[in-house]
Amino acid sequence: MTNTTNSTVRPFRIDIPQADLDDLRKRLGRTRLPDAIPGTDWEMGIPVDYLAELAEYWRTTYDWRAWERRLNELPQFTTTIDGQNIHFLHVRSPEPDATPLILTHGWPGSFVEFLHVIGPLSDPRAHGGDPADAFHLVIPSIPGYGFSGPVTERGWDTTRVAYAWAQLMARLGYDRYGAQGGDWGSFISQEVGRVDTDHVIGVHVNFLMTNPTGTPGELDDLSPDDKARLEQNRLIEADGQGYLALQATRPQTIGIALTDSPAGQLAWIAEKFKEWTDGTHLPEGGIDRDHMLTDITLYWLTNTAASSARLYYEVSHPLKDRQPEPSPAPLGVAVFPYDIRPIRALAERSSNIVRWTEFDRGGHFAAMEQPELLVDDIRTFFRELTLPQS
C-alpha cells in the first residue's frame, strides 16, 4: 500500500531491463500494417510507407541506451504526493539567487521535451546570457505519464496536479517560484497560479485556449484579424480532434491498442509531431528524429499510453464540480504560428496578461522546435516581473 504521508525525496536513475528493449524490437519486427489508398498521403492519417520506414529505424538504428545515459546525466528524483509517485528533474542553477521555476509538459510530450532549454535556463552564464536570468528548474512528469505512471485511482485532473506541484515546490524549499508549460502544462501551470497564489510570482505559457463561451455579443468587438484567427482555429479543431475525442471518452480502449502495439503507439504520437510542428512534410522536419523517438519510447517502456490518455477523461468527467476560475498570477503568453493561436481580446477577459509575444516560426512543441525563442521569452517575462515599477 502506498504511504500517502511519505515526504521523502528519493534519487532516481533510469535503468530499463534489456528484456524490455528486446521485446520492443521483436514486436516491431512482427508489425502488421494496413493497406493504404494510393495518393492519399497524410489526409487519412500517417502514411503506411512512412510508418514502416520509421518503425524499422526505431527497431534497428535508434539507440535507447545512448539516450538513457544522456537522461541519467540530469539529476532525477521521485517522491510521493497525495498517494501518487511523482518523478521529476531538479536542476539547481550555479547562480545562488536563481528564480525557482517549475516546467510542465503535455501530451504527447514528456520531460524530455525540455532537454534543449535546461542548460540555457539554469546556467545562462555558460550559454552567453545574463546570470541574473538564471532559474532553478523543477521538471516533473505528470501523474500517469512516464515514470510518474500509472495512476491508480480516479480524480487526477489538472487541478489536482496543480495542488501536487504546489506541494512539490514547498517540499523542495521554494517559497516563491514561477510556472511554465505548454499543452496540458499550460492548463496545469495556470492552475498552479490559482491554487498557490501566495507563492507564485508569475505563469508563462506557450499554449493558451481562448474558445468563445457562446455568450451573445461576445465576438462583436473582435477585430477582423481576430475573427479570421478564430475561424482558422475552428477549422484546425474540426479536422484534428479525433485523438481528443477518443482519449476523453474511451482512454482504456485506445490504451489497449497502443499498449499492445509499438507501431500503433508510434503512429499515434508521430502523427502529432507532424501536424503540430513548423516543419516540412515529415515530423522530423521540425524536430530531431531521435529526440521524437525518445519521447515515444518513454511512453512505450513505461506502459503509460492508457494512463496518460486518462487525463483527458478526468478533465472531461471531473469527480468534483470545479467552476473555472481565473488565475490572479501575472501571465505571459508566447504564441507560435503552427499551433492553435489564442485571441488576446478573449484571453484578457479572464487572465492577468502582462506579456504577449507573437512569433513567426515554431509550433506546439516549442521547447523542442524553437528553444532559443522560448528561453528568451521566459527570461524576459520573469525579468520584467522583478523590475522596479516607475
Major sheet strand order:
1-2-3-5-4-6-7-8-9
Q: Provide the residue-averaged pLDDT.
A: 94
Biggest β-sheet: count, sense, barrel? 9 strands, mixed
Q: How would the global form be characterised?
A: globular
The helix/strand order is EHHHEEEHEHEHEHHHHHHEHEHH
Range of helix content: 40-55%
Which residues sit in consecutive blocks of at least 5 with pLDDT less than 50?
none
Distance between the termini: 56 Å
Give a brief outline of the structure.
The protein is α/β, with parallel strands linked by helices and 390 residues long.
Describe the structure.
This protein has helices at 18-29, 48-60, 64-72, 115-122, 158-171, 184-195, 224-240, 242-249, 251-260, 262-275, 289-301, 305-316, 344-347, 366-369, 371-386, and strands at residues 10-12, 76-81, 84-91, 99-104, 135-140, 177-181, 200-205, 331-335, 353-358. The protein is built from 15 helices and 9 strands. The model has no long low-confidence stretch (mean pLDDT 94). The protein is globular and about 60 Å long. With 390 residues, it is of the alpha/beta class. Helix 8 crosses helix 12. Helix 4 links the parallel strand 4 and strand 5 (135-140).
